[in-house]
């Protein structure tokens, strides 16, 4: 079990007693391992999730589980949220049982969801009215990096609050980068994910061409790509072809990881931003259409690397 990774449970308990409580809301594929790393670093965690079953594992590790975000805000003055979309963030912060109903003055609120930068700015204004500080800190690295504590955080907010935020985020990530005022973290993340989607589609198309049409061995082709100029994260760390790599969703029927529906959402955010700023993003637009098609064809809950499987099925293979 996970808690066996602690070298000494008593030491962790003593460490917890010396650190103040941290609230964590949203215990999905990313939030769960992130909260675990806070516990591992000695922080007592107070958590909540709309799905109670998501809380059981964390509760076994010593976290206190409460019913609503408001309840968490009543107990903790540092809260991290990790939620699927803009509407979820708005509800968790400003809804009838939201954080801002019981937030303490001076609280630090860090949102690691990937959402519309405009919503981050709205939440910051709402938090400021209640005497709290809101920062956006979306992440990159996926479930593997969340588990190993090697995420990259892109942080937007008041620069004078960055040190306090970094103290917590460094427990969950290897890189914590200050981007500017509220919303700039989201801006950086949206740009990253648009490139990620384009790169994954390119990797999937390349692997499909080499394997299906040109008769190359999948592992050999991946090896050559990864020692050549075509190398990218999707080829060397998160390969979409089943059997090429261990520990990635493609070897588990594309279960877990980063859902296609979430990638589609992020690409939609990029498209909206591009439209509003009159910026041409031709490949980003095509990527968005491909992932929207995948959602309509039953891939919504599969990892976004399932675009490889989608391409093969489109060919009738």
From TrEMBL:
Q: In which pathway does it act?
A: Amino-acid degradation; L-valine degradation
Q: What class of enzyme is it?
A: oxidoreductase
Q: What is its main location?
A: mitochondrion
Presence of the UniProt keyword Transit peptide in the record: yes
Subcellular location, in the record's words? Mitochondrion
Say which domain of life the source belongs to: Eukaryota
- Has UniProt tagged this entry with the keyword Transit peptide? yes
Where does the 3-hydroxyisobutyrate dehydrogenase-like NAD-binding domain lie? 183-310
Tell me which Pfam families the record gives.
NAD_binding_11, NAD_binding_2
Active-site residue numbers: 189
The segment(s) forming the 6-phosphogluconate dehydrogenase NADP-binding domain are: 21-180
Q: What keyword terms does UniProt attach to this protein?
A: Branched-chain amino acid catabolism, Mitochondrion, NAD, Oxidoreductase, Transit peptide
A single Gene Ontology MF term assigned here is: NAD binding
What is catalysed by this protein?
3-hydroxy-2-methylpropanoate + NAD(+) = 2-methyl-3-oxopropanoate + NADH + H(+)
* Cellular component terms (Gene Ontology): mitochondrion
- Its Enzyme Commission number(s) read 1.1.1.31
Against InterPro entries, the record matches this protein to: 3-OH-isobutyrate_DH-rel_CS, 6-PGluconate_DH-like_C_sf, 6PGD_dom2, 6PGDH_NADP-bd, HIBADH, HIBADH-like_NADP-bd, HIBADH-related, NAD(P)-bd_dom_sf
Q: Give the PROSITE patterns listed for this entry.
A: 3_HYDROXYISOBUT_DH (PS00895)
The alphabetized list of GO BP terms reads:
L-valine catabolic process
What protein family is recorded?
Belongs to the HIBADH-related family. 3-hydroxyisobutyrate dehydrogenase subfamily.
Q: What is this protein called?
A: 3-hydroxyisobutyrate dehydrogenase
Its source organism is Pygocentrus nattereri
């Amino acid at each position: 079990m996970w808690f066996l990774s602690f070298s000494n449970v008593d030491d962790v308990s003593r460490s917890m007693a010396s650190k103040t409580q941290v609230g964590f809301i949203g215990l999905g594929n990313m939030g769960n391992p992130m909260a675990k790393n806070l516990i591992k670093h000695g922080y007592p965690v107070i958590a909540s999730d709309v799905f109670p079953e998501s809380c059981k594992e964390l509760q076994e590790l010593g976290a206190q589980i409460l019913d609503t975000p408001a309840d968490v805000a009543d107990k903790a003055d540092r809260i991290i949220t990790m939620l699927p979309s803009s509407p979820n963030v708005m509800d968790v912060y400003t809804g009838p049982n939201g954080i801002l109903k019981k937030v303490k003055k001076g609280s630090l609120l860090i949102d690691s969801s990937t959402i519309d930068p405009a919503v981050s700015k709205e939440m910051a204004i709402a938090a400021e009215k209640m005497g709290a500080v809101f920062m956006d800190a979306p992440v990159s690295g996926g479930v593997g990096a969340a588990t190993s504590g090697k995420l990259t955080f892109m942080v937007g907010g008041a620069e004078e609050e960055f040190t306090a935020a970094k103290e917590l985020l460094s427990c969950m990530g290897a890189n914590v980068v200050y981007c500017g005022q509220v919303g700039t973290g989201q801006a950086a993340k949206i740009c990253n994910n648009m490139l990620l989607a384009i790169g994954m589609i390119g990797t999937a198309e390349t692997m499909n061409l080499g394997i299906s049409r040109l008769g190359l061995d999948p592992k050999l082709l991946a090896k050559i790509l990864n020692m050549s100029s075509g190398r990218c994260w999707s080829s060397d760390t998160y390969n979409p072809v089943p059997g090429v790599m261990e520990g990635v969703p493609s070897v588990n029927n594309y279960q877990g990881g980063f859902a296609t529906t979430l990638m589609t959402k992020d690409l939609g955010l990029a498209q909206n931003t591009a439209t509003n700023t009159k910026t041409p993003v031709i490949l980003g637009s095509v990527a968005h259409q491909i992932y929207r098609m995948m959602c309509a064809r039953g891939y919504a809950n599969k990892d976004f690397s399932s675009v490889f499987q989608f391409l093969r099925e489109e060919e009738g293979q």
